[in-house]
Design a protein that fits this description.
This protein is an alpha/beta fold. It is built from ten helices and nine strands. Strand 8, helix 8 and strand 9 form a beta-alpha-beta unit.
Length: 342
């Protein structure tokens, strides 16, 4: 399996494509549901994948994200255990809950919803999650990320999937990343540098040179976490714009509306492809979380079967639900990366 994008030249005579994250995520979830069903039929050990979720407090955005993740779990057949703690819970109790999930055989993967209250150390919480059950891929060393690995951080994986889906060729293109956070910017910078010989520039909002880089960018990935930091008029005609930011609305105009890091309406007039907020990167990130959970479950199930049977016994069969044929194979070689790297 190669790790290169099928190429499509960026177009400069175009009608803007507004990416539909809900539609694309639905396709991925459908494939994952079929994969779970197929895998369960191959043995008597047919328990569902299990995802443990840690949520602290009642942050409206976090509650919304968790609701979508629970809906995705139910749609594809993942059993979930939600530990919802009050805002004033002590860090020790959160860590104890994660330790309990680490020990549970029927919990394959674990995630902690961020952000956490200020009195709880985010790093302690992430580090408490077993590396073998890290559904978000947050414990992975961003300097050693392998684009062909089964598990990648969810939001960077979502960005790569969108680029692949639209056959964006990054060779010799100028890619500008806005933000260098642990969740998106750092891992995405490493992944892109290994995938394609693109020119990659990473900016942070404090440097003050964002505008100059945006003016020359062929691909813009915004993950700064600042409302409409990137002005639409800065964007080069035909550029690709992926907006990872999720911010509160504009005070005095529409404070309840969720907006991204990019000035969407103006940017839409100039970009050839743009992701909206909401409805763009978000649904794809949820689908990547489901993908990671399924892959961890499969790895653990195979180990359980090996321990139970001594060796895997399989019969001849064919399976082409994902556009492949498998014979005398267990499990099927089907993954989101059959879509990512073709």
């Amino acid at each position: 399996m190669t790790s290169t994008f099928a190429c499509r030249t960026l177009r400069y005579s175009f009608s803007t494509v507004v990416f539909n994250g809900n539609k694309s995520a639905k396709k991925i979830l459908s494939s994952l549901r079929k994969e779970i069903e197929w895998f369960q039929k191959q043995s008597d050990l047919s328990r569902k994948p299990g995802l443990g979720i840690i949520l602290v407090g009642n942050n409206p955005a976090s509650l919304s994200y968790i609701k979508k993740k629970l809906q995705a779990c139910e749609a594809i057949g993942i059993r979930h255990e939600l530990y919802h703690f009050s805002e004033d819970i002590q860090e020790y109790d959160v860590l104890s809950a994660i330790d309990n999930l680490n020990r549970k055989d029927d919990i394959d993967a674990i995630m902690a919803q961020l952000p956490l209250p200020s009195h709880i150390d985010k790093n302690n919480v992430i580090n408490m999650i077993s590396s073998e059950k890290d559904a978000d891929g947050l414990k992975l060393n961003s300097n050693n990320l392998d684009p062909k690995a089964n598990i990648l951080p969810c939001t960077p994986a979502a960005c790569l999937k969108i680029l692949e889906e639209h056959q964006i060729c990054l060779k010799d293109k100028h890619v500008v990343l806005i933000g260098r956070g642990r969740l998106v910017g750092q891992p995405l910078e490493q992944l892109l540098s290994k995938l394609s010989p693109a020119q990659i520039t990473t900016c942070v909002k404090e440097t003050g040179d964002i505008k100059q880089h945006i003016l020359k960018a062929d691909v813009i990935i915004a993950a700064a976490g600042e409302r409409q930091l990137i002005k639409g008029k800065w964007i080069k005609k035909g550029a690709i714009v992926l907006d990872v930011g999720v911010n509160k609305g504009i005070p005095g105009i529409d404070p309840t509306k969720v907006v991204g890091d990019v000035e969407f309406e103006e940017a839409k007039k100039r970009a050839s492809l743009i992701t909206p907020v909401p409805g763009g990167i978000g649904p794809m990130t949820v689908s990547m979380l489901m993908y990671n959970t399924v892959q961890i479950w499969k790895q653990r199930r195979m180990q359980e079967l090996l321990e139970l049977n001594g060796q895997l016994q399989t019969s001849n069969f064919e399976h082409d639900s994902f556009g492949i044929t498998v014979s005398n194979s267990f499990p099927p070689e089907s993954s989101i990366y059959n879509y990512l790297y073709i």
